[in-house]
Specification:
- This protein is α+β, with helices and mostly antiparallel strands and 322 residues long.
- It folds into 2 domains: 133 residues, FAS1 domain (Roll), CATH 2.30.180; 136 residues, FAS1 domain, CATH 2.30.180.10.
- The chain contains 11 helices and 14 strands.
- The strands form 2 sheets. Strands 2-1-7-6-5-4-3 form a 7-stranded mixed beta sheet. Strands 9-8-14-13-12-11-10 form a 7-stranded mixed beta sheet.
- The chain is elongated, with a radius of gyration of 28 Å.
- It comes from Flavobacterium haoranii.
């Protein structure tokens, strides 16, 4: 009997931890799966480079935590193309500070499902060197699919997470310059045509670079250029001579300053890249009075770029032309 009792105690001693292990395994299997943005990305084979980039930039915790985010997530192929285009052999070659801002430029606050996206500007969490306070703007175009800054298309929308939503995109969205936003917005096609006319200076190189930056650009819409042609009795931009067009375009640019709408004041005199001044008034809405006493309304403000800011105007302003 004593031997039998000892055997029973031994069997219970062995069975007890096995039972506890079995219960522990059951509890583990019943634990809810982490469905944060970071966790979903970590389980998706097309986002392995993105996850590595988030780890390097110390952003995993942000996208794994509380909050509500919309992430436009580039695929591995998108990152490979980005690295090649910018002369990097791997993620290790990208400065961490630059990588962090590029990644944040793919993140928008709030849960924005594809059905809620509209054509226009949204703010990302990224910052360029032009402003310490105004985060970068992203131009969303939903006229055909969903295109971002004119460079990335949403290929798989609405991957819903517990703390937001992921939209898979086919390109890395680099930090936008003045030129990036001018090209992305179809309301600026005439402005782009003027800036790139073959008898003009290299405005694309100037406004996409850092020399003389940051820039503040007062950008006329297509309709504004149409009204100018009517005013000048011209049929197209080709009817405007080289010097007049160059001086007019430079007159819309301020060099060396990222002037936000909050910096504008009544009767403010602004010296332009062309050399002449214009005056801003803020009473009854922000307006520009040019050197010829012509008035233009500022109809949209603070489109933030990495090397400056754009304000949209509804009339082309003109300097004095000798």
């Amino acid at each position: 009997m004593k031997n039998t009792a000892k055997l029973m105690k031994l069997m219970l001693w062995v069975a007890f931890p096995l039972t506890m292990l079995s219960c522990s395994d059951d509890d583990s299997n019943n634990m809810p799966e982490n469905n944060s943005i970071a966790a979903i990305a970590s389980r998706a084979p097309q986002f392995t480079t993105l996850v590595s980039a988030l780890e390097k930039a110390d952003l995993v915790t942000t996208l794994d935590g509380e909050g509500s985010f919309t992430v436009f997530a580039p695929t591995n192929t998108a990152f490979s193309n980005f690295l090649t285009a910018n002369g990097f052999n791997s993620l290790d070659d990208v400065p961490v500070a630059v990588l962090r801002e590029v990644l944040l430029n793919h993140v928008v606050l709030g849960t924005n499902l594809s059905s809620n996206l509209t054509t226009g500007y949204v703010k990302t969490l990224g910052k360029g060197s032009a402003s310490a306070t105004n985060t970068l703007s992203m131009y969303v175009n939903v006229s055909s699919n969903v295109m971002l800054n004119g460079v990335a298309t949403v290929t798989t929308p609405d991957i819903v997470a517990d703390n937001g939503v992921i939209h898979e995109v086919n390109a890395v969205i680099g930090l936008p310059t003045i030129v990036t936003h001018a090209l992305a917005n179809s309301n600026f096609t005439t402005l782009v045509a003027a800036l790139t006319r073959n008898d003009q200076p290299d405005f694309v190189g100037i406004l996409s670079g850092s020399a003389n930056s940051p820039f503040t650009v007062f950008a006329p819409t297509n309709n504004a250029f149409g009204d100018l042609l009517t005013e000048l009795n011209a049929t197209s931009l080709d009817d405007i001579n080289q010097a007049t067009l160059e001086n007019t375009l430079k007159y819309h640019v301020v060099a060396g300053a990222n002037v936000l709408s909050s910096d504008l004041s009544n009767n403010m005199t602004v010296t332009t890249f062309q050399g002449q001044d214009f005056t801003i008034t803020t009473t009854g809405g922000a307006k520009i009075t040019d050197a010829n006493d012509r008035m233009s309304n500022i109809v949209a403000t603070d489109v933030q770029c990495a090397n400056g800011v754009i304000h949209v105007i509804d009339k082309v302003i003109l300097p004095l032309i000798n």
